[in-house]
Design brief:
The protein contains three helices and no strands. The chain is mainly alpha-helical and 94 residues long. The protein has one domain. The longest helix has 28 residues. The chain starts with 15 loop residues before the first helix and ends in a 5-residue tail after the last helix.
């Protein structure tokens, strides 16, 4: 298994229209290559998701205890969805 500092290859097949979009976006984004552009998009998406998780955790900490199971931590997205659902079920704004 690769470590966080080790690069692994991910091959993605794109339709021609998306390939043209990415190629054009690379030129306007300052990225050096399509790989750099997509890496940047993934990093930005991850940062957005982590920020959303932080907001959900802060909101959850303001109210009554919400029990979470180990499976709720399977992914960052699961945690946000689970907290929002459980807060709504407890009558709190999600």
């Amino acid at each position: 298994m690769a470590t966080d500092t080790e690069n692994v290859e991910l091959v993605v097949d794109l339709p021609a229209s998306l390939h043209r979009f990415v190629t054009g976006a690379v030129k306007g984004s300052g990225a050096e290559s399509p790989q750099d552009y997509i890496r940047k998009l993934i990093q930005e998406d991850r940062a957005r998701r982590l920020a959303a998780l932080e907001v959900e955790l802060l909101e959850a900490s303001k109210g009554p205890f919400i029990e979470l199971a180990e499976d709720d931590f399977a992914s960052e997205e699961n945690i946000c969805d689970t907290l929002a659902r459980k807060r709504a079920a407890a009558g709190r704004v999600a």
